[in-house]
Amino acid sequence: MPFPLLSPADLHALNDLALVARLIAEGAQAGLHPSRRRGAGLEFSQYRPYQPGDDLRRLDWRLAARSDRYYLRESDVDTRLTVRLLLDASASMNHPDAAGLTKLQYARLLLASLAYVAHRQGDAVGFSALHQAGLQSVPPSADASQLPRLYHALRQLSATGTFPAAGTVAPLLARRGASVTVVVGDLYDLSTADQPVTPLTQLLRQLRAAGGEVLVLHLLARNEYDLDYPTTAQLEDLETGQRLQFDATQRAAYQAQLQSWLRQTEQTVRGFGLYYHRLFTDEPPAQALRTVLRGPARASA
Fold first, then answer.
1. With contact defined as beta carbons under 8 Å apart, do 2 and 284 qualify?
2. Which ranges of the sequence are coiled-coil (predicted)?
3. Are 30 and 42 part of one and the same domain?
4. Per-residue buried b or exposed e for 161-199, using 16+ beta carbons within 10 Å of the residue's own CB
5. Is the dihedral of CA 198, 199, 204, 205 positive or negative?
6. Can you give the pLDDT at residue 197?
7. Could you tell me the residue range of the domain that residue 157 belongs to?
8. pLDDT given for residue 283 in this prediction
9. How many distinct structural domains can be found in the chain?
10. Are 205 and 272 in contact (CB under 8 A)?
11. Which pLDDT belongs to residue 250?
12. Are 19 and 144 found together in one domain?
């Protein structure tokens, strides 16, 4: 297996986010968007023949005088984006998979690689973590020292408490220019039939209203999906501390409820007109990144 496709646990063990981000991005071999397009800009790129209706201000009159032909000067137009990375850092993200890697640790690998890709394209990239203590942010920037700042914030981050109240995330909702927002979390705080309006539900709806593209990456550990625990086990809610005794006879009922919740969760996110991806924490991050960057279909709002 190529080195960039090492398991998430192996990549985490390298303990060097800068190296890991580069390896994952190179393994994915993709970009968030075309970085430049042809048009009327500042940096000259090429000539093309004049066509009726073209802007005469872009006509090269000196070339016309020499050749008796009419050409327009084309330039590269900057299409850089602002990429905002949002992480649910509530305590449920501390759930470990069978290899011992938590959702938070997997999210750290994925977000570092997304930041690397965006920065390499010249985009301004920023990071925000959402947890009970509030909003922890690194404002978007495209300068050379931004990646070290982001990597430091990711390394220092811990997952605690519950998802923050709706008012805490207000700074994330300002309407700005071209942007891509990537939300990463386990989505346990999304609305349900019993609790139709939650801070996370409000955030996703408001992010869509604020403009730009929004991608939601739903993280699951394989063991919570399969519930492959011993015949009897005690399960604990990492955010409330509530404990539940489990035995193998409950597995079928759990699976049915889980599949129902997953369908509802995906429908809710897509119903807002957002992109949705379900990722497992045992999936090589380069493979996950490649899937994300392909540009999935999005349901219309």
1. no
2. none
3. no
4. eebbeeebbeebeeeeeebbbbbbbbbbbbbeeeeeebb
5. positive
6. 77
7. 3-34+80-293
8. 92
9. 2
10. yes
11. 77
12. yes
Amino acid of residue 266: E
**Which of 82, 89, 122, 118 is CA-nearest to residue 210?**
82
Q: Are 128 and 85 in contact (CB under 8 A)?
A: yes
Q: Is the pTM of this model over 0.90?
A: no
Q: Which residue has the tokens 């999935």?
A: 296
Residues contacting 90, CB < 8 A, separation 6+: 130, 131, 132, 159, 160, 161, 162, 163, 185, 188, 189, 239
Contact (CB, 8 A) for 32 and 180: yes
> Is the residue at 191 inside a domain?
yes
Q: Do 88 and 219 belong together in one domain?
A: yes
Q: Are residues 161 and 247 in the same domain?
A: yes
The C-alpha angle 173, 179, 181, rounded to 5 degrees, equals 65
Query: Cα–Cα distance between 103 and 9 in angstroms, integer?
Result: 11
Cα–Cα distance, 250 to 229 (Å, whole number): 11
Which stretches of the chain score pLDDT less than 70?
A: 1-5, 29-48, 50, 53-60, 63-64, 71-79, 175-177, 191-196, 229-231, 295-301
Residue 196's pLDDT is 67
In order, the DSSP letters of 114-160 are: HHHHHHHTT-EEEEEEEETTEEEEEEEE-STTHHHHHHHHHHH----
pLDDT of residue 122: 86
Tell me, what's the pLDDT at 98?
85
pLDDT of residue 235: 74
